[in-house]
Amino acid sequence: QVQLVESGGGLVQAGGSLRLSCAVSGRTLSGNTMGWFRQAPGKEREFVAAIKWSVVSTYYSDSVKGRFTISRDNAKNTVYLQMNNLKPEDTAVYYCALHQTPFLRVPDTNPTNFNSWGQGTQVTVSS
After folding, report:
1. End-to-end Cα distance, the chain
2. How does residue 9 score in pLDDT terms, banded at 50, 70 and 90?
3. Which string of DSSP letters, residue by residue, matches the chain?
4. Could you say which of 23, 37, 44, 95 has the lowest number of CB atoms within 10 Å?
5. What is the pLDDT of residue 55?
6. How far apart, in whole angstroms, are the C-alpha atoms of residue 83 and residue 52?
């Protein structure tokens, strides 16, 4: 059974940085696209970033492009989200997720196509 565990959330002032980690157990990551999503109170879950199995291919939502960086360490079965220049509107619960299709060759930001999820980690950015 696949388990995803996020960590690294917290409270930070606007302009600050946080690094989220997602440790995966139960299977190897090497063939799967991994994604980060977030959900703010009263809002739908939205795509943040994803990294394909080939590692060199990443994609981001427009709202975080240039500020967030997704990376992965397949040897450690861990995915990271480096978040810089944080804004109050980045406040949300952040989730990592594993895509259902191995060796995916096209970008996919649809959360319904990610079939394994972590429990989430809270990120709060104060103004």
Report:
1. 40
2. very high
3. --EEEEE--EEEETT--EEEEEEEESS--TTEEEEEEEE-TTS--EEEEEE-TTSS-EEE-TTTTTTEEEEEETTTTEEEEEE-S--GGG-EEEEEEEEEEET--S----GGGEEEE---EEEEEE-
4. 44
5. 58
6. 19
Q: For residues 111 and 78, what is the distance between their CA atoms, to the nearest angstrom?
A: 19
Q: Kindly give the pairing relationship between strand 92-102 and strand 121-126.
A: antiparallel
Residues 6 or more apart from 54 whose CB is under 8 A from it? none
**For residue range 88-122, what is the model confidence (pLDDT) as tens digits?**
999 999 999 999 988 888 889 999 999 999 999 99
